[in-house]
DNA sequence: CGAAACGTACTAACTGACTA
DNA sequence: TAGTCAGTTAGTACGTTTCG
């Protein structure tokens, strides 16, 4: 696979998920494009001598960088890439920009492969587009744009949550436990909090906090200390290892966010405008 | 003595692994 | 690929303890 020079291309979105749809596409000189994520598109080239998958990503100023991902399985059952495999290759290429040799990646271990397939499926915006189209068909009297906007917000939150889950997993905790560690950490090293303050801050029930605290204490990540001012209460404090886990997790989360922003191509000014918009929306809710 | 803080038991929902 | 099942997680209800 070879990177071509960045070139100007108009946006387009063809549904390439179905082999039937791909079969019905007429051969043409340029690939058909499917929007995988904003700025990252999966291409399906169909010519007289075969079919192949392409990828392109937005590089700013209306320009795209394009690459060949590999032959399509539609035309090469033995060595070609399926839609999901092409999407995986696209995600890998778009995330680090490293060109591959045009052949599918070596088979991953079973679980790793399943995770990659699931991740690739989650990256398909067609789910959201399908919902938008369905509403537009069922209720043409309603402008779905606003609902679609919030649907994308929910999806962004979902994807962010998955990344936080990964970070928690690397730290040997679940995401709920990690949120407790981070809540304790941001209140300052060595500061003890009441379980009541924790469940109010984390928007969970007291029962849920009790379980999380039991888990964290069993892992020696927190310690319980008597509250001199209230004998009903037993305060919660990070241990040294708990603080180390919280700090490491926060570093990983921040680095992950930086990578996402860099990959999106959004500038600081654009992010500040988005942030201001979100603040105003939240204040109005 | 009512209210608040916390913990426990039980239940529902979700997720992932396994199997046909 | 769909269905099943076990494990996990969080929520609700309620009991106990303590405060004001």
TrEMBL record:
GO molecular function: DNA-binding transcription factor activity
Database matches in Gene3D superfamilies: Winged helix-like DNA-binding domain superfamily/Winged helix DNA-binding domain
SUPFAM superfamilies per record: Winged helix' DNA-binding domain
GO annotation terms (biological process): response to stress
The HTH marR-type domain, residue ranges: 146-283
Biased composition (Basic and acidic residues): 110-120
Location of region: Disordered: 96-123
Bias kind Low complexity: ranges: 97-109
PANTHER family: TRANSCRIPTIONAL REGULATOR, MARR FAMILY, TRANSCRIPTIONAL REGULATORY PROTEIN
Protein name as it appears in the record: Transcriptional regulator, MarR family protein
Native source organism of the sequence: Hydrogenophaga intermedia
């Amino acid at each position: 696979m070879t990177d071509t020079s960045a070139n100007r291309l108009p946006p387009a979105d063809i549904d390439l998920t179905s082999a039937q749809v791909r079969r019905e596409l007429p051969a043409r000189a340029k690939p058909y494009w499917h929007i995988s994520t904003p700025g990252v598109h999966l291409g399906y080239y169909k010519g007289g001598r075969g079919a192949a998958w392409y990828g392109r990503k937005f590089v700013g100023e209306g320009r795209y960088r394009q690459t060949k991902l590999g032959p399509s399985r539609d035309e090469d059952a033995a060595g070609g890439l399926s839609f999901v495999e092409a999407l995986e290759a696209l995600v890998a290429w778009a995330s680090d920009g490293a060109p591959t040799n045009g052949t599918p990646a070596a088979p991953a271990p079973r679980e790793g492969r399943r995770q990659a397939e699931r991740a690739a499926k989650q990256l398909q915006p067609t789910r959201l587009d399908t919902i938008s189209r369905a509403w537009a068909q069922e209720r043409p009297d309603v402008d779905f744009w606003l609902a679609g906007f919030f649907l994308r917000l929910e999806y962004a939150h979902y994807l962010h949550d998955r990344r936080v889950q990964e970070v928690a997993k690397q730290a040997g905790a679940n995401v709920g436990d990690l949120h407790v560690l981070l809540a304790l950490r941001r209140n300052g090293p060595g500061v003890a909090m009441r379980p009541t303050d924790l469940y109010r801050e984390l928007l969970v029930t007291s029962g849920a906090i009790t379980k999380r605290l039991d888990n964290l204490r069993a892992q020696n990540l927190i310690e319980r200390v008597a509250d001199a001012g209230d004998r009903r209460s037993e305060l919660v404090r990070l241990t040294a290892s708990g603080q180390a886990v919280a700090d490491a997790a926060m570093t990983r989360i921040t680095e992950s966010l930086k990578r996402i922003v860099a990959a999106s191509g959004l500038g600081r000014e654009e992010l500040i405008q988005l942030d201001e918009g979100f603040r105003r929306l939240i204040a109005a809710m």
